[in-house]
Design brief:
- It is a single chain.
- With 134 residues, the protein is mainly beta.
- It has one domain: Spermadhesin, CUB domain (Jelly Rolls, Sandwich), CATH 2.60.120.
- Helix content is 0%, strand content 51%.
- It has a 4-stranded antiparallel β-sheet with strand order 3-10-5-8, with no helix packed on it.
- This is CUB domain-containing protein.
Amino acid sequence: EWIFFYFVPSLSTIYFVLMYGHVQSPLYPKPYPADLQKQWNLEVPHGYRINLTFTYLDIEHSANCTSDSLMVLYDRKVLGKFCGQRLTDAHHPGLKSILSPGNRLQLVFVTDSSNPDLQPHHGFSAFYQAIGMI
């Protein structure tokens, strides 16, 4: 496993930059909690892009994902907003990967307090890896 790290003196913080990793919704594989806003900032070394692949996605379905959703952003630009549980749902990423334009991605998972189906949803699991820029 390749790990890069750097130190920013003004912030007194060490950042670890991984070549690959996993991201999961809180409590996964158990149902995710209500009233949640969680953010992940993924970063790989400069000169690489991030290839994000969902291995599982079960987020409460709603029109335009207005109830619960997972957004994938690059520099504040939304690359995708996802919900649903079947590959045929309009806002489900299916088996397609997302490739970032640069070396960062941000994931934002938002849930509301309602669950009209009274059915638990288990959230998401995704794998990411660094891909060299061509």
